[in-house]
Amino acid sequence: MEIELLKTFLLAAKKENFREVAEEMMMTQSAITKQIQKLEKVLHIQLLIGFKNELF
Question: Where's the HTH lysR-type domain (predicted)?
């Protein structure tokens, strides 16, 4: 597992906003989403639930 995936997840969980994560990591929101999805696939679990730009 790539450490970058874990860093992305931890920052997303902390900020609860993919746009802010993307800005901080100098990536697109879609790249952040893909990294989270890749981590979820590796772990076989849904890590974040989004609703109207908020994460739970």
Answer: 1-49
Within 13 Å and on the Cβ side, how many CA atoms surround 32? 23
- Residue 3 reports pLDDT greater than 60: yes
* Residue 20 reports pLDDT greater than 80: yes
Say if CB 12 and CB 49 are below 8 A apart.
Answer: no
* Sequence letter at residue 13: A
For the entire predicted model, the pTM comes to: 0.81
Domains of the chain are: 3-55 (1.10.10.10)
How far apart are the C-alpha atoms of 56 and 16, rounded to whole Å? 7
Collect all residues with Cβ–Cβ distance below 8 Å to 4 and sequence separation of at least 6.
Answer: 35
